[in-house]
Amino acid sequence: MNAKATKTQPSPVIDKAAFKAAVIKHLHCTLGTDENKANNHAWWKATCAAIQEQVLEGLRKTQKSHYLNDTRAVHYFSAEFLMGRLLSNNLQNFGLFDVAGGALKELGVEISDILEEEPDMALGNGGLGRLAACFIDSLATMELPAIGYGIHYEHGLFRQEIKSGAQIERPDSWRDYGNPWEICRPESIQEVSLYGYVETKYGENGRVLKEWHPGSIVKGVPWDIPVVGYEGKTVNVLRLWQSEASDYFNWDVFNAGGYVDAQRENVQAETISKVLYPNDETEAGKELRLIQQYFFCSCSLKDIIRRYKRAHGDDWSRFADQVVIQLNDTHPAISIPELMRILVDRAELGWDEAWGICTKVFAYTNHTLLPEALEKWPARMIEKILPRHLEIIYEINHRFMAEVDKKWPGDNAMKAKLSIIEEGNEKMVRMGHLSVIGSFAVNGVAEMHSRLVKSSLFPEFDELYPGKLTNVTNGITPRRWLKACNPGLSKLIDKKIGEDWPRDLDKLQGLAKFASNKTFQKQFMKVKLENKELLAEEIRKSLDIEVDVNAIFDVQIKRLHEYKRQHLALLNIMALYRRILENPDYDMHPRVFVFGAKAAPGYKLAKDIIFAINKVADKINNDPRVNNKIKVAFLPNYRVSLAEKMIPAADVSEQISTAGKEASGTGNMKLALNGAVTIGTLDGANVEIAEEVGDDNIFIFGLTVEEVNELKANGYNPHDYYYKDPEIKAVLDWLETDYFTPGKPGALVSIKQSLLDNGDPYMVLADFRAYSDAQIAVDAAYRDKERWAEMAIINTAKMGKFTSDRSIRDYVERVWKLSPCKIES
Ligand code: GP0
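^ thats the input. predicted complex w/ GP0 below
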């Protein structure tokens, strides 16, 4: 029980006086201001600069150690990295958070205020991008040689405003006033070719040589963001590429007097990294998106090869020993033909040798089974932008088809099914197939998802390549998602079980034996209450809604998508409201439903659901008959830094996707880790969370995957539920009136239409009654204060499995085969 015995908190590298001096120095010498003039923004920048001194020292030592040891490294290719804010994280990881807080206090500044100055680095949409951020945190913490490669978007995910209930998108400008963390590396600029044509030549002994004459060249400028591991030993980098017009290319145009054309060329080149596509789990099919993907993959591969050649010259035989590349979904799949092109056309290796290298270098993570998210590119689009790559893809496919024929002789249906090329009106290139064929390992992101990848998405590939398809269950970094975001709970845990849980999350098990201890329950729930007070304040400031902190805080935070079923939660809220109107004594514990969600700008129904939540919220929050039993708060602009405030305050975690649709979920892990109890379906990682916490400490409801499939096969008809269940009927009909949108009947009708006329594709009505009953069970459980506290504690205690350190350990053992590298000072 004594914390001192196991103290492994990072020990501060500098003391308060030194930190204070560093902040003042940067205020004067970096920012050109002083203590009297500085506003919070300046204090924030000076504090960042002070800690960045330590960060860069760690970075230099890490790079030197990796170089001297000629380490094998993983290269995490991802179109998205949702980093959030870095100051608090970096301070925590160096063990300098309290030191900095104390130093700033002496300067008359509150650290909590200056942390709020930092814009989120929102270079991602949701789960997939945040997973990448958690993974690079774990890689650095575990002292593994790793580099993240992505795109330096000028505008990250849009800022969401809510006007009269509706979502409005505003540009995100995270670097408008400079980003204190990033370092530009002009010495590592790369050039990327686009468009043009392929010339076929014949070399010695009849060898066919292909030469790509590009129509356009753009420059990739790398910006490095240091990634600090816990305890600050390894500092890896996230290298993000920004596009610029190539000087070389513009020179001719400019000389020819085409100044205006030269400018136009500029704009086009710079467009590539201008903005993050805001679509989550839908493939965009846009030319610019493909160019973005190729741009960052090409820059990254050339960067890797430059580094490899520095150590190994032209000897390619060791390339696959030194380099492993993880493809985060198919977004970077164009890397496969790009590496083939470099090896075959430039290095002049034979095809088989090149393919042998490729298929030892790449591994691919699948994140979804949703058909609309599986990327396919029109062959003609690839041909236009990357003519040589299309040839290479055809060659890969040609050889692959021979393999298929060997396994299933003469089976043309099988060939059509597995081919990289989908024949049809328009020939399409299936990036998922290319990724499976070009990788040595393919993983899903939770047990159940990986099982479905094998059994329904890629069953034949599983037969053809036994053992290639595997599972790595997702995880989250406990440094950000408990230690930094929930200091109250962290300190309580430190006191109870010692301080080394942030790097060994299984240690949280030690809390389980206190789960029924009344004193500990009180302490645990006191922290929860304090966190709820902070969130209540946030809700008041942002929405002018008063909420009761003794109410159940019921939280649903994630992208807005039909399969995630925010509208199922909404229907239940409306049903509760109706029950209260019918019976003023309707017995329920007060509840605050808190939502956070962005909708893709082009996703009409998702935006309608946001509008409906806000309209229903308006009505309920202002109806005195509700007597404060229900409040609904939709917090605008959900993002990492807002999640950090919402998660510690949650009593209930909503994970209610249609079974089989949510690959894993990671918010489910963050909420449970912070002592929220899950209400959820048997989907994604919920299944594994239930296994860990036990059936008594989670509320599982609804159809299973098998039941969903069976119901679909037998012809699901939502009208059956509509006519059979009077509450469902009443609630859906209510949407058609102008009750929630006075003077505008029908403003919410699209939701009803999707659930009836459009066949309710995500089976909201089929699960409604089970969900509503499960919510009644949650209500009853909450009223038993001690029982609830016990459940909450067990949830925190049993989350050890879901640290991203465990995910990374799984990747290292099953896929990457990496060893840690000690950093010499
Ligand atoms: C999956 F396919 N995910 C995609 C995508 O385009 N974007 C995205 O964020 C998510 C899954 O939906 C997930 O289940 C999963 O946990 C996450 O990828 C990381 O694997 C919930 O966000």
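The chain has three domains: 1-68+89-119, 69-85+120-159+183-474+809-816, 553-802.
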